[in-house]
Specification:
Blueprint (H helix, E strand, L loop, with lengths): L1 H35 L7 E7 L1 E23 L5 E5 L7 E2 L4 E5 L2 H37 L4 H33 L2 E3 L4 E5 L7 E2 L6 E16 H4 L7 E6 L2 E13 L9 E8 L11 E18 L4 E2 L6 E7 L2 E13 L2 E6 L6 E5 L8 E7 L8
Parallel strand pairs: 1-19
Antiparallel strand pairs: 1-18, 2-9, 2-13, 3-5, 3-8, 4-7, 5-6, 7-9, 9-12, 10-11, 10-13, 11-12, 13-17, 14-15, 15-16, 16-17, 16-19
Helix pairs in contact: 2-3
């Protein structure tokens, strides 16, 4: 009887414990579910402008390599041993400035020898002239024969010729002395100096290279289809990788009348002032040759163009209802803060130009209107 009386009480206690445990579990699950529930989406405030078509100059695009306006591989006029190299690579030199000095001792000795021979010839000529003058009256009086006097005058002519020959030899020897000093042929920069003090050089040895880069040339290759539209004096805009944010302006200086039969391209030479010497020979350049006609171009502000996730393309965010959609575009040249869109966007599209830092493809947005891109010049 005692066992039967305790059993109902134990059952009630067990049910009470299970009920409490179930209540705690339900309460914890409710809290976790409440924490996992998504909140309202974050809406980004953005500024929107319309893509616009504008008239822009029609251009021909080409690439090429920069080259010095003048380049000279300087060689000595005489052979000899180098005793001085007063300039280094990269130095700017004036026309006639000393590049290399050779040992002048041999040339100086030959000059002194030639000068001595000249003095001897001048003395012989003076003696012959005195003798001829003294006998000029004797031939008139008949004291000497005409043939004897003719021999004296011939000696004067021979002596005068010897003087002239000696003077030429002196001039040649003097030039050899002067040629031991190698000078710059024009003002420019020293791009190479492959010799050093102590080396023996000949007239075939290159001792320095001088280049003139003010102005500088850009050698372009233009396709056959565009060649007929080119003219000397046409404006050219160029960019190089070393100065990606800068645009250099120049003009077409020469057109090759013969096209390359292999590539079917015309060689075009554009010249740039390069007053600050930032352009250097060997740089790769991309250029635009501006024609006299215009064409329609689609533009958006530069700040509206963003890199895509792969980093290899460009894109713009376009408003689609209440969301921003990333659209991949082919971006062209930049003109005064506006980027030309070559493909991937239609005129009048609503493009996000402000508030881009919080955007992603499909992000909800709140739109305000901005200003249109600046007109390119």
């Amino acid at each position: 009887m005692g066992w039967r009386n305790r059993t109902p009480a134990a059952g009630v206690l067990a049910l009470t414990v299970l009920s409490a445990a179930w209540s705690v579990g339900c309460a914890r699950g409710s809290v976790e579910n409440a924490a996992a529930a998504p909140g309202p989406p974050v809406i980004a405030d953005v500024t929107v402008v319309k893509s616009e078509e504008r008239e822009v100059p029609r251009v021909i695009r080409a690439t090429g390599t920069l080259a010095a306006d003048e380049s000279s591989q300087v060689t000595p006029q005489v052979s000899g041993q180098i005793i001085a190299t007063p300039v280094d690579v990269g130095a700017f030199v004036q026309s006639g400035q000393v590049l290399v000095r050779l040992d002048p001792r041999d040339a100086t000795l030959r000059l002194q020898q030639a000068e001595a021979l000249l003095q001897q010839a001048e003395a012989e000529a003076q003696r012959a002239n005195v003798e001829a003058e003294r006998n000029a009256q004797l031939v008139q009086s008949g004291d000497i024969s005409r043939s004897s006097y003719d021999r004296l005058t011939a000696q004067v002519a021979v002596a005068d010729a010897s003087v002239a020959q000696a003077r030429a030899q002196v001039a040649s020897a003097q030039k050899a002395v002067d040629d031991t000093t190698v000078r710059a042929p024009f003002a420019g920069h020293v791009s190479a100096r492959p010799v050093a003090v102590g080396e023996y050089v000949t007239t075939a040895s290159k001792v320095a290279t001088v280049v003139r880069i003010q102005p500088i040339k850009l050698n372009l290759q233009v396709p056959e289809a565009d060649a007929a539209r080119l003219r000397v004096g046409m404006a050219v805009r160029a960019q190089v990788s070393a100065h990606p944010k800068d645009v250099f302006t120049g003009a077409v200086a020469a057109l090759n009348v013969a096209l390359d039969p292999t590539s079917r391209t015309m060689s075009v030479e554009a010249r740039f002032p390069n007053r600050d010497s930032r352009l250097a020979p060997g740089m790769f350049g991309t250029a635009e040759l501006r024609l006299s006609t215009t064409e329609r171009g689609l533009f958006v502000p530069r700040r509206a163009v963003v890199p895509t996730t792969d980093g290899e393309s460009s894109g713009v965010y376009v408003i689609d209802g209440e969301k921003a959609r990333l659209r991949v575009v082919h971006a062209g040249d930049e003109h005064d803060g506006a980027v030309r869109i070559l493909s991937g966007l239609e005129p009048g599209a609503s493009v996000v130009a402000g508030g881009l830092d919080r955007l992603f493809d499909g992000a909800p947005v709140r739109v305000s209107t901005g200003t249109a891109p600046a007109a390119p010049r």
